[in-house]
User: Fold this.
Amino acid sequence: MTKKRIDWIDVARCIAILSVVIGHTMAGLNRSYLYNLIYLYDLPVFFFLSGYLYHQKGYKKLLMNDIKFLLMPYLAVNAIKLVILAMLQHHIGTGIFTINLHSFQSLMIATLYGDGMNYRSFPAVNAIWFLMAMFVANQLFNLVMRINIGERTLAFQGFISLILTGLGFGIAHFVSLPLSINSALIAQFLLYMGYIFQTKNLLLEISKWQYVFLGVAALLVASFGTFYMDAATAPSELMAIAGSLAASLCVVKISMMITNYLNTHGWKKFERLMLFIGAQSLTVLCFHLLDLDCLRFYTDIIQGLSGKVPRGIPVLVGMVYRIIWAVGMTWGVRFIPVLRSFFMPRSFPMFKKQLKVS
Assistant:
């Protein structure tokens, strides 16, 4: 039986993934205020929502689900990059394609190490570090949430989540662990808070003025610098994690308001578009990564428009292109057999009969 999706959650994911695309397009504006603000919520909100939707699962069942929904797209993206690398080595498609890693060895090392940042001799896997981090974070969180010590279980689980988050920040000062483990560790607090807000039904308890306070807090934290979740670094780690929670809650509230507005005013087409982008946000991320690492179009747009139009317009046009590309490819992959099963296994399962795992 298919679970009914929650519209405002998909709207929140839509906002978040489009913010990821915008944030990456603003890479040349590092340390700008808007850049800092986007990085404060764009990926943290995914972890908060994952915690919000969490239900305790058996270790094996969760592992198999996450292999299907997180690791299979991760591997599919890197397989596509491998094909593009082979094409370029044979001088095929050089006018369209490029590649950030120029050898089979470096691509394999990046895929296996699974980190979003270059670390020593390990090249970065770039934007899809998030899939690996979510995979590891889910396993850790499920482990924590299966702890049972009686009446104080929930508080103890929260304490362990905080310890793991602090550990992630602490380790990042010395080493960038493989499989984006640092990021998975710092995500534990956000996962736990998402779970708490769901189990205690706290979203309905927050008043309008409390949301205003949370918004002001997030804006203030953004003024201190950038929270790089992939590197598990921030100017103030405590403020960054608190600010990301505040910003995530504001995104949730805005998503609820947008959902209500769209339902009330009958904007069905726009609503369907947002819900589609949100439901397929991880696929959008995958095709966005392929654009970042393997296509020349954005560079051609910037070079073609620079000096001919006012400053900032080339980046804005490039931003629109990147959104259209990622969303358009996500829509189009539905019609490509086999490939769609890697990116949309829920809608297009690889095998019709699924083996039940207890």
